[in-house]
Design goal:
Blueprint lengths: L4 E7 L18 E5 L1 E2 L6 E3 L2 E5 L9 E5 L2 E5 L2 E6 L4 E7 L3 E9 L4 E9 L4 E11 L4 E11 L5 E7 L6 E2 L4 E5 L2 E10 L2 E10 L10 E4 L10 E6 L2 E8 L5 E8 L8 E4 L5 E7 L6 E8 L4 E8 L4 E10 L3 E9 L2 E9 L11 E9 L8 E5 L2 E2 L4 E3 L2 E8 L6 E6 L4 E5 L16 E3 L2 E14 L12 E14 L6 E4 L2 E4 L5 E3 L4 E3 L10 E11 L3 E11 L5 E3 L6 E4 L5 E8 L12 E8 L6 E2 L7 E2 L6 E6 L3 H4 L20 E7 L2 E6 L5 E4 L16 E3 L13 E7 L2 E6 L2 E5 L17 E4 L11 E3 L2 E6 L2 E6 L4 E2 L6 H4 L4 E6 L5 E6 L4 E5 L4 E5 L6 E5 L2 E5 L5 E5 L4 E2 L2 E2 L3 E4 L10 E13 L4 E8 L7 E5 L26 E7 ...
Antiparallel strand pairs: 1-81, 2-74, 3-4, 4-81, 5-71, 6-7, 7-8, 8-9, 10-39, 11-12, 12-13, 13-14, 15-17, 16-17, 17-18, 18-19, 20-21, 21-22, 22-23, 24-25, 25-26, 26-27, 28-29, 29-30, 30-31, 32-34, 33-34, 34-35, 35-36, 37-38, 38-39, 40-41, 41-42, 42-43, 44-48, 45-46, 45-47, 45-49, 48-52, 49-50, ...
């Protein structure tokens, strides 16, 4: 019986479809579509290739950006591309790091010491000193608590540490020994001091532990005279012993809690103790570094993992008064950091510390002692990560106590708890828990600040009471959110603090600190200052490469009253010691107000400025000028109520909105900072008073969690949470912080959200972004549309690494961590994929898509070139299953016609699979004859189409080898044959296919084993 032959026309106008059942993909859509673009409707043509630029070097944290149109690579260093010399130029160090903060302990009491350990299961055990009052006196109480370090969920409520007899005295410490938290405590039993431990299994953290004796020969100190370290599945402990006239003693606990022998080093005493391990030696070497405040001597010793002496006690310091010590060890050497009390000589009541560093080898060689960091004290034990040493430090003052993470060079890596950090630590340094590249450290945080009435609080001389709680900070070192924003003629970058790059070098945005301990005295007889009252304020000021002037917050006004007509005032101003601004140094600028001239005018010279010096603690400025001599000088920028400039700490992400920089605070993921408005010839200026708050719980939606990402859409600031979207609108405040028209956040939807800043890209219809449900579109009307459903198979288990809208095209390209690049054409609403473009980051450089791979190689799209580096670009596609008679209908497939345009030599591989079996059973390789041979190479002139060859029409007829079928699927792969030449060409374009099928009645026959009933 003859069948009616039915044509099935397929044009190439619908792109990929992976959301549908693979058996039911509509005819005309593709299951795969590689290396094609849609520059004309219904036509597939090859994408451009990517040519090589010079490699920037291997750095897994690197990403690309542009500044002033110049290509920049940012990783552990900052590099700028010189197109003229085709080289990368090193512009300075950059520290990619992100941080997160978890509140651990909050109560009605004040915590004065903390330590913590984090298990591999994510539990964190915190031990701390609680200062409780019975109304008559305050008694320290020592407690521990256990929580989930990811969610903050309480597992074991704060519980007092007790022993069967005696009292607990001195700060406890905690370690994680395999599957147990080990808490070390001091137990005073009738005047005899014991060092004991409590073991808490990670799997049963709510049990009540029992104190077990380590030694009864312990001599405590007001600081902390014991320490420990985990190495080789053992806890090594060193302490100050009281036997034999004094000794340093060491022992260890196995993970089964078996205690080893104790070794003794007689003749030494310790008031500060630090224990660390060198894991790079064939077997671990344990170092005990200690300091005796009675003799002002510091020593270090080393033992093997079996407690055999490797290095006898070796002196590394004497005579220096130290307040803390910590150490790291690697490659047979211990690196010792010691904290020195160094009050300002002009006012000894103002505390300021600095940290020294010295190296001691196993052979006993002691290096020279140098200053590691000025103006800070130790706030954690030092630690090693990827062979680099880090330590958290504390800057302490009455007004801006702040913690910093420093690297082994003393450079600032991160900043946190600005103006809310705790005091200098005197009773032991917190441990650091390391997991992969994440370092977790507990620290004291001011969680309650209240004014006090001195009449009611006679024992206090401070007008403000600051209660401290405990936070846990997690530093992800080597990883940042890789977000940049170019505004105010500078490139701004997220990280452990807000970075900026001015084309010269990367530095901190603004200033980490302002000059907060200014002092003034006066003398008579040699100056032109008349008798009246004066106030002084100082600022740090710095000009970037474009001439924009950055100013710190001014110091608090300090007063002096002169009594003669010829006085001289001497002002001491602390230097800025924590800064990257050394090649182009900071200026210290002084301003003066007087009773007769009640405006702060600049006193210091503009032509010969006072320059910052990071190697000293302060500079002394002599002021002899009469009021008339400074009239007309610069006035202090806060005149008129302008908000003082305070640079932010850790930045999670940021965006540009209304000529402002908006940024997300890493320490409070519900709080946005918003800069002052950026106008011509001004930099970005930020203040801690300019904020926008988005509550984690709003209205009937319940908790929507913290803010994740930001973007501007028309006049709106879009705020993305993981599964919700909000927006702000309205004009922002003026520079005094007043007249803001920004309203409360407006809820958009809880259908989707976005946690991936790198995935957000603007295109004509709105913002495209990756949610946990794929790629969505937030329209300009605030509607949400699952625009990425056709490529769901490519986004389900992959993360967008960069998203770029390509100028001169209708394309948006998303590079994925799977190595695939997704291409969306917003004119035709079609998706395709680019393969062999393994980008870990991409940007636009010279208006061309430019990407960086994990090997540090850089590639740029090259128009009308069809190689990715040395690899030819080839097109391919696979159709859906074609079944004109229905999902399980029966048909006879006769033939297919393929229509295209020949451009350059290529071959085509045609593969056909049948009956829903994805393995092709028919394969044919076609070699087009359009290639024009050399003149005279044909048999007869004019015997085949136009003279010289068949022209550029490419048309093929392919017969189906298996005609009876219920479905078939077609795959076409372009093949480039190197024999065609060294340069791969555009190959061909494809316009469509025409199929001829015959319809049959009934269903396909199935074998008996597939039939039932």
């Amino acid at each position: 019986m003859a069948l009616n032959k039915t044509p099935v026309n397929i044009n190439f106008s619908q792109g990929i479809e992976t959301k549908s059942d693979p058996f039911q993909v509509p005819i005309g859509k593709f299951q795969t579509l590689k290396n094609s673009v849609f520059n004309k409707g219904g036509l597939l043509q090859k994408r451009n290739g990517y040519g090589s630029l010079p490699s920037v070097g291997t750095d897994s944290s690197s990403f690309l950006a542009t500044f002033n149109g110049n290509l920049t690579a940012i990783g552990s260093s900052f590099s700028a591309y010189s197109a003229s010399s085709q080289t990368w130029v090193d512009k300075g160090v950059f520290h990619p790091v992100s941080l997160d903060v978890l509140p651990l302990i909050r109560s009605n009491t004040n915590q004065s010491q903390a330590d913590s350990a984090v298990s591999s299961t994510g539990l964190v055990c915190t031990v701390f000193t609680d200062n409780e009052s019975n109304g008559v006196s305050t008694t320290p109480v020592y407690k521990y608590a256990i929580a989930d370090s990811l969610t903050g969920q309480n597992i074991k409520a704060p519980t007092e540490i007790t022993a069967p007899t005696g009292t607990i005295e001195g700060s406890p410490r905690v370690f994680i020994l395999r599957d147990k938290f080990i808490i070390l405590i001091t137990n005073n039993i009738a005047g005899s001091y014991h060092l004991k431990y409590l073991a808490i299994p990670v799997l049963t953290p709510t049990i009540t532990p029992t104190a077990v004796d380590i030694t009864g020969a312990y001599t405590p100190a007001s600081t902390l005279a014991f320490d420990g370290v985990i190495s080789n599945n053992r806890l090594y402990i060193a302490w100050n012993g009281n036997d034999g006239g004094g000794a340093i003693r060491m022992t260890s606990l196995s993970f089964t809690l078996a205690q080893s022998n104790t070794v003794t080093f007689p003749g030494y005493a310790a008031t500060h103790m630090s224990v660390t391990s060198d894991e790079t030696t064939p077997t671990p070497t344990i170092y005990a570094t200690f300091y005796d405040s009675a003799t002002n001597d510091g020593y270090t010793l080393a033992v093997s993992s079996s407690l055999l002496t490797v290095l006898a006690p070796t002196q590394w310091t004497s005579v220096t008064v130290l307040t803390n010590v910590t150490s790291t060890a690697t490659n047979g050497s211990v690196r010792i950091l010691s904290e020195v009390d160094n009050d300002y000589t002009y006012d000894p009541t103002i505390p300021t510390h600095y940290i020294n560093v010295v190296n001691v080898t196993q052979a006993g060689s002691v290096g020279s002692t140098t200053v590691y960091a000025r103006s800070v004290g130790l706030a954690s034990k030092a630690f090693l990560l990827n062979d680099f040493a880090y330590v958290m430090v504390a800057y302490f003052s009455d007004f801006q106590p702040t913690n910093f993470l420093l690297d082994e060079s003393g450079d600032v890596v991160a900043k946190l708890a600005y103006a809310n950090a705790g005091p200098y630590l005197t009773t032991g340094l917190p441990n650091v828990s390391l997991t992969d590249n994440i370092a977790q450290i507990p620290y004291l945080i001011k969680d309650l600040v209240q004014a006090t009435n001195k009449a009611q609080n006679a024992s206090s001389t401070e007008p403000v009471y600051s209660q401290t709680g405990i936070n846990l900070v997690s530093f992800n070192i080597g990883e940042s959110k890789k977000v940049t924003a170019e505004i105010g003629s500078d490139l701004h970058l997220t990280g452990g603090f807000l970075w900026m790059y001015d084309g010269y070098s990367p530095v901190e945005h603004g200033f980490h600190l302002w000059p907060d301990s200014v002092d003034v005295t006066t003398a008579t007889g040699s100056g032109n200052i008349t008798a009246q009252q004066y106030y002084y304020q100082a600022t740090y000021e710095w000009s970037d490469n474009q001439g924009n002037i950055f100013r710190s917050a001014p110091s608090l006004p300090v007063a002096i009253t002169t009594t003669t007509a010829n006085s001289t005032n001497t002002i001491n101003v602390p230097t800025l010691r924590l800064t990257y601004k050394t090649a182009n140094p900071v200026k210290i600028v002084l301003y003066r107000w007087s009773t007769a001239q009640q405006t702060y005018y600049q006193v210091t010279s503009i032509q010969i400025p006072i320059m910052n010096d990071t190697t000293v603690d302060y500079v002394t400025i002599t002021d002899t000028s009469a009021d008339s001599a400074i009239l007309g000088n610069n006035i202090i920028y806060t005149t008129g109520g302008v908000l003082e400039n305070i640079s932010p700490s850790g930045i999670e992400t940021m965006a540009l909105w209304q000529s402002r920089l908006v940024y997300l605070n890493s320490e409070d993921r519900n709080l946005l900072g918003i800069s002052k408005q950026v106008i011509q010839a001004t930099p970005v200026e930020t203040s801690d008073l300019l904020t926008l708050y988005v509550a984690p719980t709003i209205g009937s939606q319940g908790s929507t969690g913290p803010i994740k990402t930001l973007a501007a859409l028309d006049e709106k600031l879009i705020v993305f949470k993981e599964n919700a979207i909000y927006y702000f609108n309205g004009q922002g405040p003026d520079n005094t912080g007043a007249n803001s028209q920004i309203g409360d956040p407006v809820f958009v939807t809880a259908t989707v959200g976005c946690s991936n800043q790198a995935s957000i890209v603007f295109m004509p219809s709105g913002l495209m972004f990756q949610s946990d449900k794929g790629i969505w579109l937030l329209g300009r009307d605030l509607s949400t549309n699952y625009i990425g459903s056709p490529v769901e198979a490519y986004t389900q288990n992959a993360t967008v690494l960069s998203a770029v809208s390509i100028p001169g095209t209708n394309q948006v390209r998303f590079t994925m961590d799977s190595g695939i690049t997704l291409m969306y054409d917003y004119f035709y609403n079609q998706w395709g994929t680019f393969v062999n473009v393994p980008a870990q980051s991409s940007t636009l450089y010279e208006s061309l898509h430019t990407y960086l791979n994990s090997s540090g190689e850089v590639f740029q799209e090259t128009v009308n070139q069809y190689k990715d580096g040395s690899n030819p670009v080839v097109m391919s596609f696979t159709t859906g299953w074609i079944n004109p008679m229905g999902l399980q209908g029966f048909q006879r497939a006769y033939e297919m016609y393929l229509l295209g345009t020949y451009i350059s030599p290529h071959k085509l591989e045609i593969q056909i699979a049948y009956d829903y079996n994805g393995s092709p059973s028919q394969s044919t390789v076609i070699t087009p004859d359009n290639f024009t041979p050399a003149y005279g190479g044909e048999q007869l002139w004019g015997s085949s189409g136009p003279w010289g060859g068949p022209g550029n029409l490419e048309q093929w007829r392919i017969f189906f080898q298996r005609q009876k079928c219920e479905s078939f699927q077609i795959t076409i792969n372009e093949i480039y044959d190197p024999s065609y030449g060294q340069t791969a060409g555009a190959g061909l374009t494809l316009s469509g296919m025409n199929l001829t099928v015959g319809v049959k009645d009934g269903k396909p026959r199935l074998r008996a084993s597939r039939q039932s009933g």
